[in-house]
Amino acid sequence: MNKAWPELLRKWKGALGNYQAVLLVIAVGALLLLLPTGGGQTSSTSPEQPAAAEADFDLEEFEARLERTLSQIQGAGEVQVVLTLDSSSRQVLAQDVERESDGGSRSTVVTVGGGSGGQDVVALQTVAPRFRGALVVCTGAGQAQTRLCLMEAVSALTGLNSNRISICEGNP
Fold first, then answer.
1. What is the pTM of this model?
2. What whole-number distance in Å separates Cα of residue 54 and Cα of residue 163?
3. DSSP letters of 39-97?
4. What are the Cα distances from residue 124, in Å, to 43, 48, 52, 127?
5. How many CA atoms lie within 13 A of 132 on its CB side?
């Protein structure tokens, strides 16, 4: 019986040598399955409201932030901002397109399991909103230098050309 063990071990070693790469891939896969995946945090978005709820653009919040920032410009004084949008922000979602034999195609939105039975959409990119125009009313708009600074700041933050930005002097 003692002589059978070395021969049996040699046969196993020869058989395992042939499949060494396959066994290595299986071992790495098993190791990856055992690693922790992030503490079990789940997303609070529901399937009816895909992840777009997290990326919504809040126009009032942006206007308020712009007002606070523009009021810091020397000579601007109190600032009020009104922005109009051509289109709001949106997400481009991943889609699975299947070609039909008759030349048509059918597409479905790609979703992934969210953990506790929920589904989350796969967003490829978020497209920023497009602004139509801006109105800035401030007490210091009578000064040419202040108007220029306000114009450049609004243009830089919104992407609007100067012909789409109106700066007016307000009451003190």
1. 0.52
2. 33
3. TT------TTS-GGGGG---HHHHHHHHHHHHTTSTTT-SEEEEEEEEE--EEEEPEEE
4. 17, 18, 11, 10
5. 8
Bridge partner list, 90: 127
Instruction: Return the pLDDT at 87.
Output: 75
Residue 50 CB neighbours (<10 A)? 19
Q: Nearest to residue 149, comparing CAs of 73, 61, 63? A: 73
Within 10 A of 134 (CB to CB), how many other CB atoms are there? 22
| Residues 122-136 pLDDT 10s | 777 777 778 899 999
Q: Which sign, positive or negative, has the C-alpha torsion 139, 140, 143, 147?
A: negative
For residue range 150-163, list pLDDT tens digits in order: 999 999 998 999 99
Contact 69, 83 (CB under 8 A): no
pLDDT-flagged residues of the chain (< 50): 39-54
Quick one: tokens of 53? 């709820």
- Rg of the chain in Å (alpha carbons): 31
